[in-house]
């Protein structure tokens, strides 16, 4: 759970580009063909995937729908009342008084009864603007009146391997490329520095490098 939250915190401030486009880096790992779709669920999917906790999110499958995600957790008996909410839970939200989930986030902190701090994708950076299609990753404070459902992932203990490029001759270059967003490691923490790449992977990396040189946030 802590690893998922750590990854989510590291994404705070990430924005879609161009503004209002729903184009974000998370779609590149989920399915690049879906760029332009609302991405609050995809942000959470990506955080769980990067943490090696995909099975806890949606049994290792993929969904971009708040409703589908909520129905799955209900079917598994993995929902809890507001009185039992805790960090690492997923909250499904509605801002118009309805019961249909239209947005989601992960609980970072329980402030008080019915009041939680969350990290969410595709929301606005402050209290103004669209809360469920705001275009960035931000911390939010949500109330019981906004929470439709609280889902409780079953996190697994994972032994993260030591980085497999620690003693590699290209370690500094690998770290620079990863920090710049040009390349990414695998969900289990490995990198496989001597593994060949496909032409498709090369194309993705060239595109990311082009965006970096143009000053576009990855």
Radius of gyration computed on alpha carbons: 18 Å
What is the helix tally?
Answer: 7
First CA to last CA: what distance? Answer: 25 Å
Structural class: alpha+beta
Summarize, please:
With 218 residues, this protein is α+β, with helices and mostly antiparallel strands.
Description:
It contains 7 helices and 5 strands. Helix 1 (2-10) crosses helix 3. The mean pLDDT is 90. It has 2 domains: 2-151, endopeptidase fold (from Nostoc punctiforme); 171-214, no CATH class. A 5-stranded antiparallel sheet has the order 4-3-2-1-5. The two termini are 25 Å apart. The protein has helices at 2-10, 26-30, 40-50, 54-58, 66-75, 171-179, 199-214; strands spanning 90-93, 103-112, 115-123, 136-143, 147-151. Strand 2 and strand 3 (115-123) form a beta hairpin. By secondary structure, the protein is α+β, with helices and mostly antiparallel strands.
Layout of strands and helices, then pairs:
Blueprint: H1 2-10, H2 26-30, H3 40-50, H4 54-58, H5 66-75, E1 90-93, E2 103-112, E3 115-123, E4 136-143, E5 147-151, H6 171-179, H7 199-214
Antiparallel strand pairs: 1-2, 1-5, 2-3, 3-4
Helix pairs in contact: 1-3
Task: Spell out the key features of this protein.
218 residues; alpha+beta; endopeptidase fold (from Nostoc punctiforme); 2 domains; five-stranded antiparallel β-sheet; globular
